[in-house]
Amino acid sequence: MRSIDHPPEQSSSIGMDFLLGGCAATCAGLFSNPFDVIKTRQQLQGELMNAASETQRNPYRSITKSIQSILKAEGISGLQKGLVSALAFQFMMNSVRLGIYQTAENYEWTRGDTKFGTLVYSIFWGGFSGVIGATVACPLYMIKTQIQATSHGKYAVGFQHNHTGTMEALAGIYKTYGIKGLWRGYPGIVTRTAVGSSAQLATFSNFKDFFVQFEIFQQSVAFTAFAASMFSGFFCCVFMSPFDVIATRLFNQGVDANGRGLLYRSVWDCFSKTLRAEGLHGLYKGFVPNYWRIAPHTILNLTFWDQFKSWKDLYY
Fold first, then answer.
1. How much of the chain, in percent, has pLDDT values that exceed 70?
2. Which of 141, 132, 163, 135 is nearest to 40 (CA)?
3. CA 245 to CA 275: how far, in whole Å?
4. Three-state DSSP class for 84?
5. Could you give the CA distance from residue 158 to residue 254 in angstroms, rounded to a whole number?
6. pTM for the whole thing?
7. Other CB atoms within 10 Å distance of the CB of residue 189
8. How far is the C-alpha of 220 from the C-alpha of 217, rounded, in Å?
């Protein structure tokens, strides 16, 4: 993400920034989706149960055990469950999110008079772009979560929606609950994405600015983006994980005939119930697979993004 000396002169160039953001995230999603499946199941395992009760049935207690459980129950394809909706979500959300953030960078709206000012502006635009992206892509995130949570027998955790595919799920929810049903749980993903996007993009920009001071990083766009992404992914995971758990549970819970959640009424209700029943551990369930999802995804997403932009600058 480079600032330039002048604002872009062609709207088509801005449109290309949006497209490149979506393509980069989609490429990254192919590699990170198995960890997303594991993360989702760990976050739903033992939902609103205390630790003693949860240990009685724990098929997803670690990454290794999770992989074994998924392979036993669903075969190799189970590790890529929800891939279509996951990639569609990544493309739609990040086309908007990264496109808006890059536009802000192009116009130097993320630059302050001091390093602290730049950090504050970066956090604001990272959060703002994330909220807009999440708003547009919310239905796909819900479907992704519900499909990834689907299993059977002793391997089933959380509410089982049993969708047969992305389009069937979208059509079924719309037919039953209307357009409002497709944005159920919206506050959860907005909170999650605002926190995660702020942490990810702000730290990525600032770590990149730090690394390019050294000669070894000045020779490769990809190497600089890779290094900055490693650190960015860690901060993103630490700050976002509790909100990620909340978003997963809000989206996956069952609903009544009026489309109201059976377990949680709001973000705060989910937060307080989880904390009371499961403690702080409950809000960080799935942290390890979440990191293994976020870190490689951040590395691949932002590295692909920077590489695509460097190619655009050469050939566009």
1. 86
2. 141
3. 11
4. helix
5. 9
6. 0.82
7. 30
8. 6
Nearest one of 62, 12, 13, 1 to 285, comparing CA atoms: 62
Query: What does each C-alpha distance from 35 to 66, 84, 148 come to in angstroms?
Result: 10, 15, 11
**Across 77-81, 132-136, 198-202, least confident range:** 198-202
pLDDT in tens, 71-110: 999 999 999 999 999 999 988 888 888 788 888 888 888 8
Give the per-residue pLDDT at 2: 44
Whether residue 45 contacts residue 58, with contact meaning beta carbons closer than 8 Å, is answered with yes
Q: How many CB atoms lie within 10 A of CB 179?
A: 9
- Which pair of tokens denotes residue 121? 């502006």
- Amino acid sitting at position 116: F
Cα–Cα separations (whole angstroms), residue 272 to 175, 229, 265, 302, 304: 32, 32, 11, 34, 38
